[in-house]
Amino acid sequence: MIDQILPHSPTAYVRRPTVPAESPTLGLGHLQFEALITTARLSANINDFALIALLGLLGLRIFEACGSNVADLGEEHGHRVLRVRGKGGKLVLVPLPPAIARAIDRAVDGPVDGPILRNTLGGRMDRHAATRRLKHLATTAGIRMPRMHPHMLRHTYVTTMLDAGVSLRDVQIAARHADPRTTKRYDRARKNLDRHPNYILAAYMASGT
User: What is the CA radius of gyration of the chain?
Assistant: First the structure.
C-alpha cells in the first residue's frame, strides 16, 4: 500500500486474537507458598531451595533461573546481586536478600564457574528438570494443583508483593514488565477472586437471613 502496488491492505479484516484482561495463570496462596518454601528448605537436594528462591522469591522466569551462572553473582554498592539476562538479552541486576543469597551459596557449594542450578548428574538444570522438581516439592508439601508449572511461582511473586501493599509501579519494576498492563492483569485476577460474588452468597446463606 505504501508503494501503491496494492489498492488496499489484505489484512484489513483479519481478526486479531483477544488477550484476556486477567492473567489465566493462578498463583499459590500464602499458606501454600509457605509450605512449598519449607519443603524446599528441608529437602536433601540442595538445588530445591535455590530453585524456589529464584522463581518465587526473586520472580525470575524459568529460562533466567536455569540460565544463571556462578559467574553472574557479584556485589554492587554493598549488595549481593545476581546479573540476569532477561527477555531480549537485557541485562539487569537483581538484589539478593541474605536468606536467598545463602540458598544460592549452598546450591553452588564451592565452584567458581558453571550453572547455579544443577541436575542430578551435575550438569545444568533445564526447564523440564526444574518442572519435575517443582511438581515433586508441591506433592511433598501437600499442594494440590491441577497443573503445577514454574510460571506459577512468578505469578505468586507478583501477587504476594501486591498483597503486601507494594505499589503497582514498583511491582512492575521488580517483575521487569515492559508494559504496566501486564502487571495489571495479575492484579485484576487477584482482586476478582477476592471479591467474587460466591463469597457474598456464602456469607448471606450462613447468616440465615
Answer: 21
